[in-house]
């Protein structure tokens, strides 16, 4: 919200403060002032000039030599290239010595051999944004009214000796989206009286009810509609003061009728719209929902295809405006317009937001309706517009407005005790002081039985509960006045929960392994929702998704991690290692909400080792990812409880995929992408993993504290054993059989070789194990090792197809 202080002075006296001091007070009261902008930009030597003579430049077709009266003894010769400069105009002149906002220094110069003693300026050159400059002057200099006094300070005449405050409003403070709303705020902050605009006007003997009928069919979406009919309107350029105020508010002036509706919008926060009465044709206004396939060309000259959810204003037959969003081109006010209808209405914010968002059509009006307008200003704003139309457009306002009104305009009442306020603030504000503050805010307040009965004006729709009243009292009393106190009572040292500590350990391990954290959407497409899922169940779809790609809650982290990896690879980042700790959503609870589980997922691709100076390279493979998983399990104390079981999963390589099992239950997945999947996502050899973090950490938390053993004092002995196995028999199965022999002296089992070559029988492979035996009490003898080793061999004999080499 842009607030002109010159405009604000119409309502409240702010003369006792500097602009910076006022901005500071507003910020300290709860509305942040983002910027304090001087419209004059500190410019000097900017005066009003009169073009007395003009001739073409002899050396340039697009330049003119102007003899300009600037109030000095002699005319000043100024070279001007603006296409709209002409003799007899009053213009803005920057004299030598002026410095414009863009840094240009004006000085005497020669242009193509002719002297130029200044510059005739456009509004853009004075620092006004091009988008708010009137269209007639958007491509040239700004022409002043003939009543302008030659030699006078042009900035003062234009009203640019002004300061603009840019307010950063929170969504709940829709009341401050108007000059009056800001004036109420400043009046309360400064304890100054408030002056409201005059809305009275002389009415015609004719009645609007005899010229126009209004029918509202969608009453829940439009509970109040006020229509005024104004005759004999003269559409012309607005006076300079009105144009300046609109430009200061960031609005482009068009003509006096449209400018008045925009002025009242900025003043009251109530959107208005002007229809050309003759172009409405039927003398009727009907508010209804659009018919399927109905179209409307809006004021921006775009044809809009409407849906039955769009509220429209019609002439009883066809749409003439999108309610609360934008008017239609078929009833636009033009220079030929003589009779207009002023619409002031209350439209439900949800419907306006839905239509505005669907069409991508956001306007000042829709922004205010979406946040909620003051129901008691609907009529006031219409009256204010009528008063200005009489004053600035010579209009004649017909009596008896055409009104449909089923809107609840009752003010909310809140009862608060002073003790409640002071208890929440930790202060001792007297009741009398509270009453004074609330009255400064224009709240109705009465003391009854030691409590405050507060009537909240309808413009403050953000005040709903007792705590809101407490906040209002605190911010006007002054947050700086709240005493500083140290907390009392028992102090408890904050710490992480066991689950939070476990999650942090998990992050440390995977980041220590070289992976970077990724954060991806929880929403995905229905097609990808269950891909690579550890456990699948009923999917959860959004009722109103942003797009098909974000319509369903995910059941696996892997698809989006693959997309992130592919995004990096496509931008020449050939080695990618990413992990994510995030939620997946599987099945439905009795409350129809999905079960939410926290998982950890990872993806790696490219080179795992690339030491150019050592000539060493190693591409990622299954065992790199398995090593990361095992490091994580070891850190959590679960390495001996987890097994890897070969499996087949759609989208993953059938020979490089395994389920991660804990206590016989699948808790995760590890594997390489199938070549077809790699081609689809745009990656080369890639490996992924995902585990249920909730189960992992719950299991880790039940483990006993880590026990440390002394370093063995006596040496151990190792035996290597090479086994010929059926190709489908896994090393993990063999290891499990060895462990099942329960040989106390066996301390370590390590696979150090796998061979599947031509020298092996068909369907066979060789797997070599290194077995380490030791005893913490003494040095082992050969006989003890042989006995222990024979137990292992006996257990291995139970495996079908096994031969010891």
Secondary-structure topology with pairs:
Blueprint: E1 2-4, H1 5-8, H2 19-28, E2 32-38, E3 46-56, E4 64-69, E5 76-80, E6 90-94, E7 109-111, E8 114-116, E9 119-120, E10 143-144, H3 154-158, E11 163-168, H4 179-190, E12 203-207, E13 213-216, E14 224-231, H5 240-248, H6 256-268, E15 272-276, H7 277-280, E16 284-289, E17 295-297, E18 303-305, E19 311-314, E20 319-322, E21 326-327, E22 340-346, H8 349-359, H9 364-371, H10 378-393, E23 396-399, E24 402-405, E25 412-416, H11 418-425, H12 431-440, E26 444-448, E27 451-456, H13 466-477, H14 498-512, E28 516-517, E29 523-524, E30 552-553, H15 558-569, E31 576-586, E32 595-605, E33 607-611, E34 616-619, H16 622-635, E35 642-646, E36 652-662, E37 665-673, H17 675-681, E38 686-692, H18 693-701, E39 717-726, H19 731-740, E40 746-755, E41 764-773, H20 782-796, E42 803-804
Parallel strand pairs: 12-23, 13-16, 28-31
Antiparallel strand pairs: 1-11, 2-11, 3-4, 3-6, 4-5, 6-9, 6-10, 7-8, 14-22, 14-23, 14-24, 15-22, 16-19, 17-18, 19-20, 20-21, 25-27, 26-27, 29-30, 31-32, 32-38, 33-34, 35-36, 36-37, 37-38, 39-41, 39-42, 40-41
Helix pairs in contact: 5-6, 6-10, 8-9, 11-13, 14-16, 14-18, 19-20
């Amino acid at each position: 919200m842009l607030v002109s202080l010159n405009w604000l002075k119409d309502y409240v006296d702010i003369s006792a403060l500097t602009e910076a001091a006022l901005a500071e007070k507003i910020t300290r009261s709860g509305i942040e002032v983002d910027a304090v902008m001087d419209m004059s930009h500190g410019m000097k030597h900017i005066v009003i000039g009169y073009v007395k003579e003009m001739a073409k430049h002899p050396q340039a077709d697009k330049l003119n030599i102007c003899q300009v009266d600037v109030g000095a003894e002699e005319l000043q010769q100024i070279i001007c290239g603006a296409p709209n400069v002409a003799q007899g105009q009053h213009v803005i002149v920057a004299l030598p010595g002026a410095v414009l906002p863009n840094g240009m220094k004006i000085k005497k110069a020669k242009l193509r051999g002719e002297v130029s003693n200044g510059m005739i300026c456009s509004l853009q050159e004075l620092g006004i944004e091009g988008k708010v400059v009137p269209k007639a002057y958007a491509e040239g200099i700004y022409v002043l009214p003939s009543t302008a006094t030659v030699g006078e300070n042009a900035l003062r005449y234009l009203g640019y000796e002004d300061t603009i405050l840019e307010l950063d409003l929170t969504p709940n403070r829709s009341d401050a989206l108007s000059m009056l709303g800001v004036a109420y705020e400043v009046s309360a902050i400064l304890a100054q009286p408030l002056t409201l605009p005059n809305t009275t006007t002389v009415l015609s003997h004719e009645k609007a009810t005899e010229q126009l009928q209004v029918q509202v069919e969608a009453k829940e979406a439009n509970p109040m509609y006020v229509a005024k009919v104004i005759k004999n309107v003269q559409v012309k350029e607005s006076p300079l003061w009105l144009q300046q105020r609109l430009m200061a508010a960031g609005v482009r002036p068009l003509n006096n009728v449209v400018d008045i509706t925009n002025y009242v919008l900025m003043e009251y926060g109530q959107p208005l719209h002007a229809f050309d009465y003759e172009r409405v044709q039927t003398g009727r206004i009907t508010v209804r929902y659009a018919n399927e396939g109905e179209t409307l060309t809006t004021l921006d000259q775009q044809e809009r295809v409407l849906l039955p959810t769009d509220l429209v204003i019609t002439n009883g037959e066809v749409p003439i405006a999108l309610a609360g969003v934008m008017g239609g081109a078929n009833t636009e006010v033009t220079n030929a317009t003589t009779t207009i209808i002023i619409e002031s209405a209350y439209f439900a914010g949800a419907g306006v937001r839905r239509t505005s968002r669907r069409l991508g059509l956001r306007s000042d009006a829709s922004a205010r309706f979406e946040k909620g307008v003051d129901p008691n200003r609907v009529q006031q704003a219409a009256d204010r517009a009528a008063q200005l139309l009489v004053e600035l457009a010579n209009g004649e306002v017909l009596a008896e407005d055409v009104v449909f009104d089923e809107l609840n305009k009752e003010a909310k009442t809140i009862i608060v005790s002073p003790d409640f306020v002071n208890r929440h603030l930790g202060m001792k504000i007297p009741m009398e002081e509270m009453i004074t503050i609330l009255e400064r805010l224009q709240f109705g307040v009465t003391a009854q039985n030691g409590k405050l009965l507060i009537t909240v004006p309808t413009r403050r729709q953000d005040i709903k509960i007792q705590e809101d009243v407490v906040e209002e009292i605190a911010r006007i009393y002054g947050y700086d006045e709240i005493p500083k106190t140290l907390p009392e009572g028992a102090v408890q040292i904050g710490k992480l929960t066991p689950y939070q500590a476990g999650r942090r350990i998990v992050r440390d391990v995977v980041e220590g392994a070289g992976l970077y954290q990724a954060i991806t959407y929880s929403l995905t497409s229905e097609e990808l929702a269950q891909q690579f899922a550890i456990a699948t169940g009923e999917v959860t779809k959004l009722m109103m998704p942003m797009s098909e790609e974000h319509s369903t809650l995910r059941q696996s982290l892997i698809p989006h991690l693959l997309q992130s990896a592919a995004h990096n690879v496509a931008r020449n980042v050939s080695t990618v290692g990413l992990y994510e700790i995030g939620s997946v959503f599987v099945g439905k609870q009795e409350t129809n909400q999905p079960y939410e589980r926290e998982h950890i997922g990872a993806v790696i691709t490219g080179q795992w080792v690339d030491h150019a100076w050592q000539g060493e390279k190693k591409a990622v493979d299954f065992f790199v990812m398995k090593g990361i998983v095992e490091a994580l399990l070891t850190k959590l104390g679960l390495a001996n409880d987890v097994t890897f079981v070969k499996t087949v999963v759609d989208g993953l390589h059938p020979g490089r995929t395994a389920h991660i099992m804990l206590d016989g239950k699948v808790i995760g997945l590890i594997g390489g992408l199938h070549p077809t999947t790699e081609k689809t996502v745009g990656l080369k050899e890639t490996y992924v993993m995902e585990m249920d973090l909730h189960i992992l950490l719950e299991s880790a938390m039940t483990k006993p504290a880590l026990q440390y053993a002394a370093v063995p004092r006596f040496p151990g002995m190792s035996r290597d054993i090479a086994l010929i196995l059926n190709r489908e028999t896994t090393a993990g199965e063999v290891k499990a059989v060895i462990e099942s022999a329960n040989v106390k002296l066996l301390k370590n089992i390590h696979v150090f070789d796998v061979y599947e070559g031509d020298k092996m029988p068909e369907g066979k492979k060789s797997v070599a194990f290194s077995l380490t035996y030791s005893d913490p009490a003494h040095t082992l003898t050969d006989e003890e090792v042989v006995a222990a080793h024979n137990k292992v061999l006996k257990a291995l004999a139970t495996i079908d197809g096994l031969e010891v080499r």
